[in-house]
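Anyone have tokens for Homing endonuclease LAGLIDADG domain-containing protein? Sequence:
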Amino acid sequence: MKAQVSLYMVTYMLLFNCMPETLYYFNNNDNIIKMTKMMVRLLLMYLEKSIILFRYFMTNNKQSASNFYFSSMKINKKTITKNHLNDMNEMKMSEHKPLYKRLKDDEMLGYYLAGLIEGDGHIGAKYITIAINYKDIKNAYYLKKLIGYGNIRRYSNTDKAVSLNFDSKAAMLRVFNLINGKLLGPYKHKQLIDNKYDIKFNTLIKPIANFNLWDNPWLTGFTDADGSFGVYIYKSKTMKMGYNVKIMFRIKQRHVDLLKHIQKALDGSISLFKMKSVVGGYNYSATNFNSIKNWIKYFSLYPPLHNSKYITFIKWYKVCYLFDNKLHLTKEGLDKIKSIKRNFRD
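Reply: yep, here.
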């Protein structure tokens, strides 16, 4: 009994000293015991920054302590703002890589599919099609299975890509129902209107969406279509090891609207660039490490689904971890980055 009372007293002392505004929330004994064990461990490991992140979670989310994990960077997506991200960027990255995740229901599938189609799809009068790199053909079959329709064909003019096609009325209706109300940009939304999907399927075409990108995997779909991860190593006379490491996340698009949504949610910059195949386009890039960490937090919630892109992301994540811990300034760390870079697909 004395031990139990002492445990409770320690708990309340820790909570009172660290975050008195949250004390009222822990009125359950199980929560108190779990919280004690977790707080003691975390305070010993990283006291100051543990408190910063804990305050963010408890004051903004009121979430149970038993659901609070630092290592997985779990966050309440609906309350994220740039100020919150700046606070959380004070935390060091976890060495543990984000786990590959599957789409759990039609709602999440719809957001992912909308992002994928807005990145590299086309909505026609008699079909809907999505271009997918041949290396990611497994994901094409996975999506076909989830959707319940579709056929996969190789393009006749290249061996580097396949198309996932929905050309029956039932298949088109299924995809339309999944993405309706989840399109962020005007271009694919206009294709629905121009091809009279409302008349064809007797269903109202919902307005262009305006959701928080942190709430769902739309951005994962868009990244699988058009995003790329970059690691660059170049000689530098000013660096002790003789080399500088640059990390980048990039998305290229013909239109700027969607990139502005992304910039607003995750920071980064947008610039014009010239393309061989079209008149021009826009390049979104995240090179500042705080912006990079925003992307890491997002992909910890919704990792890329395309096989090759997920593998590249994990390699990129390892470099980011080394960089965040300043190990790129050591010979051992720089050698690790060079080794990762040799097997890297941008």
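The mean pLDDT is 79.
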